């Protein structure tokens, strides 16, 4: 490397440096502490006092951590333990858990701001405005994710409430064992109405999934052929149940099924749910077929294999991850659907979401929270399976490293 090249390289390495402690780090850390103080103070109708105390706490934490505690791990754990101890003094175990969370966030924020880590991912030549937009964008994404996930995080602990309330009791907030119970889950597994609805869902969803997978896979394979006329128009019609508002689809199915004597029957509900699941299968299988090597099917045909053998032994193993993913989406759609079954079903086809809807409309039953937690757990398991299959499909098609 020549001297000129070395000088140029040295010029490109710009030390980001650390921001001003009193002019930047402490005010922003104080603001974060004030936010937590305001939220905590509102729980006891003392939002303003909590905000002021939070400002003091955040500012002091930022100043001490950045001035005297160079070890990030030690500083974070010290603030977590200190804030948890303060929370325990004010609110027992519930306060300790909340204090630990506040300490973890504020300490992370102090080091993230104070050491200039917020500039990571931003080019060294970025202007302050560009850096601000980058950080703002990350926080917007984080807040959107939080507000999407917050209802789930609220429902799960409420399902263990020992009282018949939809709110957190003082015992729950204090993490007292007397505040928690499994009685709502016991009611779900012993109540005949809930059990009947669950078995109806388990009878309808698998059959609807089988039909959706069969028809959707065949449709995706057919529409992937370049010689099929009006492919785009047919595709638009087949995936229209995903686009058309569900209430319109349900009303249309109701009037159609009434004329063909399918309204209020098991077969009618299964066909309706299959129609809702077919678009998911078509989309996932079509995405899998994008990277499919069609020379494999031509080679099989040249070797004497008939179309059915070619599909089962050549094409199906390669597109199987997409088929299973579409089937899981179709199953979730059928298992969680309530609008269509209200229109085309009868009391004999009352599904689990239908029973939950009744529990909210006609009687406030906390068992709904337990059922919702079970459904959330099931959905997370299925989505995790879908992600595993997606990665496997990418590896099989050579789109990601082994």
The name CATH uses for the topology of the largest domain is MetI-like fold
Please state the overall shape, judged from the principal axes of the Cα atoms: globular
Order of helices and strands: HHHHHHHHHHHHHHHHH
CATH class (first level) name of the largest domain: Mainly Alpha
Average the pLDDT over all residues and give the rounded result.
Answer: 84
The level of helicity is over 70%
**Gap from first CA to last CA:** 37 Å
Task: Write down the Rg.
Answer: 29 Å
How many individual domains? 2
> What portion of residues belong to β-strands?
under 5%
CATH architecture descriptor name of the largest domain = Orthogonal Bundle
* Class from helix and strand fractions: mainly alpha
Total E-strand runs: 0
User: DSSP helix count?
Assistant: 17
